[in-house]
């Protein structure tokens, strides 16, 4: 999707086993008081309730014309509301790089304490990130990475390669006892690095399963309409196969429509991102959709936690360092019927 999760640096550290744990871990960095004179930090839940130095956070993201991006905005807003000491200045959001640059410059001129930016185009917005940093405003770069590490203080985002890798491993384990198994792939926009990373991860995982061959691939556009059209082409081209890896749950809605129209059910489907629709279908267990690989929008809530910590001069709870990390990569957990209840609260519409 032109507005989907972006291009994360591969130098990020693994951060927990799920988005939920990432948020819980980061909230511990917000503690303003210690529970004892020896300096032991209080639990995260207590830390959230104790306001500290007031922090104004500027939040700038692209237009929320996709379910995942809308969830990004909502996660940021909801997280900010949990803190008495946080004021959130949020822009309208735009996919026009010039407009988004203007919105960020307005936040810089307002002298916000910290900026959280999910750029419509990381490369194109690098200069405004540099401008903020040089003005003494630390930047939390959310998901789509800027072209220069000097343009941000901390990057947090998803693992596109890990999405494909975990999808491939899940499918491999389901089909490891089947001879001459065939899989197909419904990718996203091929001009995006994230799509190439998801495909590369998937292909690398399949190398561990010599009984499985990828027989077809179609690139869609991260929309319901494109998902339906491209899935119909895959179904027409392949009379039978054993598994489908779909990069995005929004386009997966269209793919499911095409599958129902074709009356096909001989294969299992694995989605991507973690929408509520996908999780509901997985829980019901009455369709080909058996799993989805997370690209958690809760990263926006964690970005607010990081921004607050930066504004208050704190580190991250549970780590020995005095400063927050430079890079945090979230783990792409596989959601199945066995664990879907754990992840349903993070599902987005």
UniProtKB/TrEMBL annotation:
User: By its UniProt entry, which Gene3D superfamilies does this protein fall under?
Assistant: 3.40.50.2300
Write down the PROSITE patterns for this protein, in alphabetical order. Answer: TAT
Q: Where in the cell is it found?
A: Cell envelope
Metal-binding as UniProt keyword: no
* Keyword flag Signal: yes
- Keywords in UniProt for this one? Signal
Signal peptide span per the entry? none
Name by which UniProt lists this protein? Substrate-binding domain-containing protein
Q: Which organism is it from?
A: Streptomyces pathocidini
């Amino acid at each position: 999707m032109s507005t989907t999760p972006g291009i994360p640096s591969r130098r990020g550290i693994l951060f927990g086993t799920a988005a939920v744990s990432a948020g819980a871990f980061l909230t511990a960095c917000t503690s303003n008081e210690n529970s004892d004179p020896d300096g032991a930090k209080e639990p995260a839940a207590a830390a959230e309730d104790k306001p500290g130095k007031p922090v104004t956070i500027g939040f700038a993201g692209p237009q929320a014309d996709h379910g995942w991006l809308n969830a990004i905005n909502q996660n940021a807003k909801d997280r900010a509301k949990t803190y008495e000491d946080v004021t959130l200045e949020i822009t309208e959001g735009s996919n026009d790089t010039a407009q988004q640059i203007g919105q960020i410059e307005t936040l810089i001129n307002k002298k916000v304490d910290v900026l959280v930016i999910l750029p419509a185009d990381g490369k194109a917005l690098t200069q405004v990130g540099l401008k903020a940093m040089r003005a003494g405003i630390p930047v939390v770069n959310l998901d789509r990475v800027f072209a220069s590490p000097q343009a941000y203080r901390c990057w947090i985002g998803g693992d596109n390669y890990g999405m494909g890798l975990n999808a491939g491993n899940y499918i491999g384990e389901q089909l490891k006892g089947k001879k001459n198994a065939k899989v197909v792939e419904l990718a996203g926009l091929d001009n995006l690095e994230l799509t190439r990373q998801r495909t590369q991860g998937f292909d690398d995982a399949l190398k561990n399963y010599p009984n499985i061959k990828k027989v077809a691939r179609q690139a869609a556009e991260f929309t319901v309409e494109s998902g339906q059209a491209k899935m119909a082409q895959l179904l027409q081209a392949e009379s039978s196969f054993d598994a489908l890896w779909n990069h995005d749950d929004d386009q997966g809605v269209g793919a499911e429509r095409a599958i129902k129209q074709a009356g096909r059910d001989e294969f299992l489907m694995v989605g991507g991102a973690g929408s509520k629709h996908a999780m509901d279908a997985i829980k019901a267990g009455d369709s080909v959709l058996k799993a989805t690989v997370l690209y958690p929008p809760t990263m926006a809530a964690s970005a607010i936690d990081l921004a607050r910590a930066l504004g208050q001069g704190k580190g991250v709870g549970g780590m020995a360092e005095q400063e927050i990390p430079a890079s945090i990569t979230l783990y792409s957990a596989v959601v199945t019927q066995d664990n879907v209840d754990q992840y349903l609260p993070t599902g987005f519409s």
